[in-house]
Amino acid sequence: MTALTMTADDMFDQAQSPMHRHLLLLAGVVAFVGVIGAGWGALSIGSHTPVARIQIEGHLQRLKSSDIDAALRPLVDREFGALDLDAARHAVEALPWTSRASVERVWPATVRVRVWERTPFAHWGDKALLDSDARVFTPPASEVPDGLPQLAGPSGAEEDVAQMFRTLSGELASSAFPLQGLTQDARGEWGGHTTDGVELRFGRTDPEEKVEMLRGPAERVLKNRMNEVKYVDLRYTNGFSVGWQDPSKSDSTEGR
Predict the structure, then answer these.
(1) Which domain holds residue 136?
(2) Among the three residues 117, 143, 158, which one is the final residue of a domain in this structure?
(3) Among 117, 141, 162, where does a domain finish?
(4) Which helix (H) or strand (E) holds 180?
(5) What is the end-to-end Cα distance of the chain in Å, rounded?
(6) Alpha helix locations (H) across the chain?
(7) How many helices (H) and strands (E) does the chain have?
């Protein structure tokens, strides 16, 4: 009788035979398909379940979670897989105090909403506000904070007016003319008013060019009489004129 002896190398060679490799590959494919099928089945079942929870994230001061929930509820009251994420995001961003938002599905049945709230910067016109990005929005009057500056201008000029106000208010903060409001009309005329209610008439030139006049000659002449001043007209090349609260006082024009 002849004995059959198989070495480790022989076993390795057999394991690496074409037939054996094909069987291993087939088994791997079957296992992979099984996993994909199970996962797809779970997703399919999950996509047909109702939305169970709305998860709201963000640092909210003026926005209310109840308002966000109310805006989303008509859109999420459906199967989880049928949720329109873009429509849900637009609904949240339509709330006055929302700066931007993101909406995503979290399996198996949660909708996660991340919200970034607006920071109010100034009044804009009669009823609206500007946020810190110079975008117009209109919250309820009861939610408007106190102490905001008053800005106004043509549609599309929001960013220019806001930036000019930032510049001027910084340069005039420590002067006799601390700025509280700034406007630009349709003709390009700039006007401002101070915290004491003094009107500043800048004209069509860059208002920043008049800062030196205000902090120099105008302040020297008027700093002890500011309660008498109604307006300072800066629409002169080398001077300014003053309108007084008492109409009996005549306007005066001062040079540099």
Answers:
(1) 120-255
(2) 117
(3) 117
(4) strand 179-184
(5) 127
(6) 8-15, 18-47, 65-76, 85-93, 158-172, 211-213, 219-222
(7) 7, 13
The reply to whether 219 and 164 lie within a common domain is yes
189 and 225 share one domain: yes
103 and 126 assigned to the same domain: no
Query: CA-to-CA distance for 12 and 88, rounded, in angstroms?
Result: 59
Greatest alpha-carbon pair distance for the chain in Å reads 139
Q: Which two tokens stand for residue 18?
A: 């074409």
DSSP string, 203-239: ETS-GGGGHHHIIIIIHHHHTT-GGGEEEEE--SSSE
- Same domain for 58 and 73? yes
SS3 191: strand
Whole-number pLDDT of residue 51? 77
Alpha carbons 104 and 86: distance in angstroms, whole number: 9
pLDDT band, very low/low/confident/very high, at 235 (cuts 50, 70, 90): very high
The three-class DSSP label of residue 4 is: coil
Total domains in the chain come to 2
108-132 mean pLDDT: 95
Give the model's pLDDT for residue 26: 53
What is the rounded distance in angstroms from the CA atom of residue 202 to the CA atom of residue 177? 13
The CA distance from 3 to 1, in Å, is 6
Q: Which two tokens stand for residue 61?
A: 């001061």
- Other C-beta atoms closer than 10 Å to the C-beta of 149 total 19
Q: What pairing do the DSSP bridges indicate for beta strands 199-203 and 229-233?
A: parallel
Token output for 207:
């208002």
Tokens 């510049």 correspond to 167
Q: How many CB atoms lie within 10 A of CB 29?
A: 10
CATH number at residue 101: 3.10.20.310
